[in-house]
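Hi P.,

Sorry for the delay on this. The queue was packed all week, but I finally got your sequence through. Input first:
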Amino acid sequence: MNITEIKFRKLMNEGKLRAVVSITFDEVFAVHDIKIVQGEERLFVAMPSRRDDSGVFRDIVHPINAELRREIEGKILQSYQMELDRQEAETGA
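Then the structure:
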């Protein structure tokens, strides 16, 4: 399964939440509301989640193994950096 598209729904400059992303796999399956979050040491990707009856947030969709998680996170963060670079070039900042 290949990521065929990454769309940035929202980009933020303040706070820990930096972006909300949608990804498409093989041009036929989309996952929305993936978050890019600034952690204490690095950016990370948080999968879409929902609060359960006990108040705990649980992922709605997620990779089953660490290898796929690293691949998805790497591609999303690479695209995020490219989007920031593109915006910076457009504004001349």
